[in-house]
Amino acid sequence: MVRLEAMVANGTRKQSINNKEDDMKFDFKKLALGVALGFTLLGGAAAVAQDAKHEIVTVVKLSGIAWFNRMEAGVAEYAEETGNNATQVGPASADAALQVQMIEDLIARNVNAITVVPNSPEALEPVLAKALEAGIKVVGHEASSLENVTYDVEAFDNAAYGVHLMEALAQDMGGEGEYAVFVGHLTAKTHNEWVDAAIAYQKEKYPKMTLVGGKIESNEQQQTAYQKTKELLRTYPNLKGIQGSAGEDVVGAALAVEEAGLTGKVTIVGTSLVSVAGPYLETGEIKMISFWDPAKAGIAMNKVAAMAIEGKEVTDGMDLGVEGYNSVKLDGKVIYGQAWVDVTKDNMDEYDF
Amino acid sequence: MATSQDNEGRVLEMRSIRKAYGPVRVLENVDLTLDRGEVRCLAGENGSGKSTLIKILSGVVTADAGSVSFAGRTLGADPVAAIDAGLSVIYQDFSLFPNLTVWENISFLSAVNRGDFVHRRLSRRGRAIETLKRMQVEIDPDMPVELLPVASKQLVAIARALANDARVIVMDEPTTALTRSEVAHLMEIVGALKKDGVAFLFVSHKIEEVFAVCDSITVLRDGRVVVEGPIGEFDSARLVEAMTGRSIDSQRLPREDMAEQTPFLVARGLGRRGEYADVDLELRPGEIVSVVGLLGSGRTELALSLFGYLAPDAGVLEVAGRPVSFRGQNDAMDAGIAYVPEDRLTEGLFLSQPIRDNIVVSTLDKNTRGFAINAKGLTQRAAAAVKRLRIKTPGVMPAVATLSGGNQQRVVLARWMERSPKLMILNGPTVGVDVGSKREIHELLVSLSRSGTAVMVVTDDISEAIALSDRILVMVRGRITGSFDARSVDEETLYEEVIKEDRA
Amino acid sequence: MSSVSRILATPQGVVFLTALLFALVLSLLNPAFFTPATLIDLLRNSLVTGIFALGVMMVLASGGIDVSCTAIGAFAMYATMKIILGIDFDMPIIGYFLLSAAIGAGLGLLNGILIGGLGLPTLIVTLGTLSLYRGALLTFLGTTYITAVPRKVITFARSVLVRMENAVGQMVSLPYSFLVLLFVAIGVAVLMNFTMFGRKIYAIGGSEEAAARIGIRIRRVKVLIYVIAGAIAGLAGMTHLTLSRMANPFDLVGMELNVIAAVVLGGARITGGHGTVVGTLLGVFVITMINTTLLMAGVPSYWQKFVIGCLIVVGTGLPILIDRFARHRERISRPIGA
Fold it and tell me: Does domain A55-156+295-339 correspond to CATH entry 3.30.70.560?
């Protein structure tokens, strides 16, 4: 998941602008003026700032990259809709220590709630504990292991996501034939959870399909995925489907399939972004890619934070009123949605990241 | 010869060359000329300034004063211009390209000199073969130079000079590594080229060769021309006298005589294939033995064998009355033998480390208790050594690199003396050391020996051997050919012995 | 020396034998191995490594080493793509390659100035610039994949010289970028063998001091070597871009040791003075073959590294040991007493 964001990192021009904003905020951190100023620059939603009911700040891993720009748009949308003072900040480099510093500042400013996408969950535990002590609500994202949170919002349950991808693959393969799966690294927890669930689902639901080659490692590199796909095709000439995990997997596989003249004969689905897999979606080597929309995640986090401030509880099966989070699953403090987004040739124009 | 009116045939003229490195005067008002077809010998001992003079001649080093002109044209310090004017220097290492073929090596100089862009293989190869033919030598032109024997490399280097139409060829110790018949062949070639008008400057101190081939001689000593003239004015005695002179370091150091003691190390019939053979040797406490020989005589290999670094193939070695067979230098060190290498800079010292650490590095255990090193003890010991060896330094902590050559050599000595060795072997202990320091190092070694250490010095410096030793062994082509009492031998006798290689 | 030990006495010999052995084992395991399709596939996979290796071979021949080549390649190709997308100027695909080569040459010039001009140690300088160029690329040019490459690149990538079916009926093809390798190989071969500049490179690699003594202007030659090696790296980067049809700034860096391994296996020596175009290409081919065939056999990638490591140690070590043994025997055979 981390990798997915790194992929959409977007150069430094934007980062340095955000950096300046951050500096400004630190200078005036206790002044309403400063907050308002920072807010103006950030969200362009200054109109709703003055009569804000709750102050909710989202701390992201890294500012300026496409992924979190998208999340910021969601936060801004939420602020406009609800009138709450919701903003987003993030360090110029993906550094846990910088996040700790930002959260310290937010505690000092006594905001109502902090939502956070941590670079390193473990490193944030102490400062988040301090925030909870100070009566600030904390909502995490992409960090189901966090202890010191009020809630943690996850876009989806990893197993459910894996099953979802397999369903798409199996549908296109007609429920039979040989397929292969890629993971970024054999040690990558998330990727393995997706793939394990997918394989288990296939064995149960589509017994005519066979997995070949075991779990194949791409090292999250397009070149490796390409090479290994070529070898796969040679070794298993009847290969019908490929499921990718890292964002590069499907792209490398697609290139190999195209070069071998097998476009249309091998189905490729997997996790990726339009900005990465776009050309092959267009030409048809890649059937479908999935990801989750950070804007929606941003809104969901803020909604959960507002509920927590207002003392409302989140319950299993609840509708958060955000697409993909209409029937959430509650596991302890962790809230799971079904917020994956499927992109095919037909709807790829809607996503610019 | 020293006049310049005869400009027609004069190909090289060096006038009033002066050069100093810091306070050390290396060359003082040196004049040197060469005429067409002349073969001149530049003679002088190590450190007399020969190599600096050649560097100035070839434009690598700038003279402080004086002028160098080729065929009437005065040149500045520019190696390329010197080559262009027809000068070729054949260095002791030949400066060939080992990875390239014979013909390419031969043609390279002229191709570079002409500023060619295209590498014209065929015509260059043809010309190289022609040059070899002109010299009447048979060498496979397509052989990589690294596979050639030394003598052939020498010839290739000459061919390279000729292929560039060299008019002055400087040869630095050209025969050191050659056999007698190879030398004879070389001399024939020199003789033939001389007839074509090529002038040679021969740097050599092998008397026989000098008389066999040279027309005139210039002798350098301590940076000055001590004598110069046609060969007819010299005989070998006069030449040797001119070269050695009566300089400070050739005087024998005073010492008390010691009663002869039982040998610490004895070698009987020691031999190593291709390097030395039948060496009998006794090294006693309280005695300094010098092994004198030319480069390649096997002296260094012998020393390294005694230190356990090379394994002898034949003979026996006894230390303190017991036969030993060293598996490596650690065995020898454990037996109480120390070795000060030829090149202290690359083999002996940690230049960037403090003097103290260099002195105590091999004896750290003296100040170690358990796992803890007593730094204060180390410093005291190093300070004592610095005082004892009169190393000129403000303290023991500056890096060794800040010291002069002579003082660096003393640091190496200090390190070994800290081990209190029973036998100390020194290879070229005063190479690159100035005259004053040389004397002091000699004094140190004498006092070391009088305190009961056996000392063996390997050197090619005859005056050093006489100044320093009690006994002198001469090594020629891998064999000990003579043994002399240093009190009674004179330099001339010793010199004759050292260079008589082909009579052995 | 027997003929086998004579072959084993050169790195190329060891490499060649290993390659033969590999091919033999593989063809036993899979009879489909010895087909033109396999050859074409190997060639296609060798392209980028091959182009890099030719530049590195030049540097090694001069007695230097260049580990920064991949960073130069990555920088050049990414910068080229940024520039072309930025100025929206229509130029033929060869212009892309020339631009990339020019950027590479510029970065190579910095290497050259530091190494030739200032006389700094070549490994340290290129290690430094490897990091420098990569850091500059990721910091100032960006970290995003560029997948929206111009149509021309895709068209170029899709045009093939040879296209054929392999044993299982899939297409294998040799893309046009093979011509880049061919061009660089011929260019380097001509430069190294038929110009004085090339011969000076070997001379400097053989003995720098000797080269200086005969009046070769070493600094000038060295600067030029790194400029040319940089330009070649730029071409390699652009070739990689057309093959992968996207500009990924994270790519290429990490290949440099593989490239150097290929060059060394091809007979160039780290100590300088040796190296040929044919040998280098052979080395590249062997490395690619090992990588691909082990992959084919389902061997994990760690094992490929292991095998290549063994090959380097044996390929460079065995000739030295054989030489040392021969010397020892030669000395022993001489009579005592010289």
Answer: no
